[in-house]
Structures are given as structure tokens and as C-alpha cells.
Amino acid sequence: MRDAARALWLSSPDVEAARAMLDAARARARAGALPVYNPQLQAGIQNADNQQRSVGVGITLDVTGKRKALTRQADAGVRVASAGYERSRRDVTLRWLKTSAAVNVASLARQVGERRVQVLERFDALAARQLAVGDVGPPERDLASLALAEARVDQAARLADEAAAVANLVAVAPVPAAPLHAVINAGRLPAPATEQAMIDTLPELAQARAQADASDAAVSVADRARRPDPTLSLVAGTSRAGRRNDSLIGLNVSIPLPVRNNGRDLVAAASAEAAAASAQVRALQMRTDADALAARTSYVALREAAAAVGGTRAAAFDDRVAILERLWQSGEITTSDYLLQLRQSLDTALSVTRLQGDAVQAWFDYLAASGQLMAWIGDNDGATE
User: Distance of alpha carbon 262 from its chain centroid, rounded?
Assistant: First the structure.
């Protein structure tokens, strides 16, 4: 299962996009760790009563801590993208498992339908022979033919359902379905075991917390941006007036004056966004707790129902068909009763299969909502690779 999941992540465009976003965030972090200002080269020529030639170099000094604030913001951005990458892998894995379960259920339903068609083909042939010897009348013979035609029409619909389920699987990623036949057939799933610490590790929570940290860092970035930094320039050159040549050495200091735009509104906006991000973390925590509880409740109900019917006679389709056929041949039930009970047996078998498939899908939803899906799939590395 783990190897299949790794192949899924390698082939999924959603995971590829999330990985590219993580690479971009790491590149921005490297850029944020670099100095904010580059040195400036200056050159000047003046021809008047005297001739001056000068060359200089200047640099703006980061005395307000812009680099530190940008580094903090970029690091938080890496954590946002890392959690997004992990969330993307989790979501793709969940879709793959659930669509795989749908494919498996559709395949099992098709197999039950095929078995029904085979039974009715044999029944139709048997009814034709009995009509020839006078054991049944034409109306009963017609019922057998009509039942066979109806079964073939129903089977075509099940084939279409299976094709649609396979198409949904391919839409997730071009990888085979997860092998879940045995799980769905057995209907035996583990009991839930949820701890709050597991829910707290959900990637969407980690992403929201990192986004809140990035918003806090943005306040510092905006505050540092409104504070001017001085620029120092060292100039050297020559001055010539007539026959006299003099050397020039100068030191210039300049600093912007934040008079027309002091940047206070940008700081206020960043502060409001940080407060909103913090509130969103609390709201998301409440939603994830509620989703985990709902997923657990749904899973427990479906698990118990699947376990209750999985070992009963309701799931024994072939056994019921054999019994019905013996009763019909012995004349204990009519053709109408045989066909009616055969349909009931088929509907029951299909319902049991769908219930077990729903329980498996609820299991996957529960694992995802409780923060256990990636550990269950065998991935404990996270998005640190």
C-alpha cells in the first residue's frame, strides 16, 4: 500500500503543484536571508572653471532590521507551503482510497449481477425444457424470459457504474486501484481510536498556524518598511583648476524623510490581517474537532451495521439461489415466487456489498479527519523530504 501511495504522489499533478509551491517558498526564504540592499557605484564629471572627476561607492545600511523581519516572514511561508504539500498528499491519498473503494464495490456488484444473469440463463433454459414436456405453461416460460432480459439490462447499468468508477479513479491519478476487495468482502474494520493530539497534527491546522505566523511577521515587515535606513557614500576623485590639481575625498550621508507617506496605514492593515488569521486558526480548530467527531460517529454506525450483516444469511447469495432452484423444481414454489425471491436475494446481496463499501469509505474519512491516514498508509516522513 505504501509503495502504491508513493507512485500515486509521483504521478499526481496536485501533489506536483504543491511541491512546486514548496520549492518556491524555500527559494523565497533563501532570498529573504540575503542582505536587503546592494552597494551603489557612483561616477561624476564636472567641467566648469575647474574640472572634477570622481568615483564613489555607497550602501544603504539595514539599521531597522528589515532583513530579520523578511527572514521570519519567509520562514513562516515555508511552513505554510510545507503544510500545504502534506495536505495535498493527504487529500490525494484520501480521494484515491475512496475512489478505489468505489471501484471495488462496483466490481463486486458487477460480479453479483453476472451471477444473477448466469442463474437466470440456466433457469430460462430449464423453463424451456419443462415447457416442452408440459411441466410449465407458456406464461411461466415467458416470465423466465422476461426476467432474463431484465437481468441483462440491469447488468449493463452495473457495467456502466463500474466504468464511471474507474474513470473517477483515473481522474485522481493514473495508478491502479488500492486492493480493497478483501476488506470490503470481510466487512471487518478496526475500532476507532482517536486522540486530540492526532487531530492537532492535521495539515490544515498546521497550515493555518503557519499562515498566522506569516501574518504576524508581515506586521514587522510593514513596520520596518516605514522606517528609513541611511545611505553612506564614499567618494574619491580629482579637481583641476588651471595648473593646480587637488585630490578629493568625501563622505556623504543621506536618509529618506517619511513625510508624505509614513506607512502607518500599511502597518494597521497588516495588524488587522494578523488578527483575522489568528481568529481563523481558532475557527478551524473548532471545525476540525467537529468533523472528527462526525466522522467517528458515522464510521462507528456503518462499521457496526456492516459487521452485523456480513456474517448473516443475507449475504449468502449463492446459497439462497440453490435453495430456491430446488424448491422451484420440486414444485414447492411457483415461477413468480422464485423470481420474486431471487430478486430479493440479489437486492439484499447488493445492499450488503454497498454497506460494506460505505463502511470502508467512512473508515478512510475517519482516518483523514482524525489525523491518522498518512500513518496508516505507511508514510511517517511528512513533507520534510
Answer: 43
Q: Distance between CA 58 and CA 251 in Å, rounded?
A: 9
* Helical H segments across 311-334, by residue range: 317-329
Determine the Cα angle at 110 with ends 104 and 112, to 5°. 105
Strand-pairing partners, residue 339, are none
> Distances from the Cα of 318 to the Cαs of 114, 275, 345, 346, in angstroms?
12, 63, 9, 10
- The C-alpha cell at 328 is 422451484
- Say if residue 113's pLDDT is above 50: yes
Give residue 360's Cα distance to chain centre. 18
Measured distance CA(195)–CA(197) in Å, rounded: 5
Looking at per-residue pLDDT, the higher value among 172 and 279 belongs to: 279
CA distance linking residue 46 with residue 150, whole number of Å? 101
Residue 290, pLDDT score: 94
37 contacts: CB under 8 Å, gap ≥ 6: 59, 60, 61, 62, 229
Integer CA distances (angstroms), 263 to 67, 137, 270, in order: 18, 96, 11
User: Which DSSP letter does residue 54 get?
Assistant: E
Unique residue bearing C-alpha cell 567641467: 47
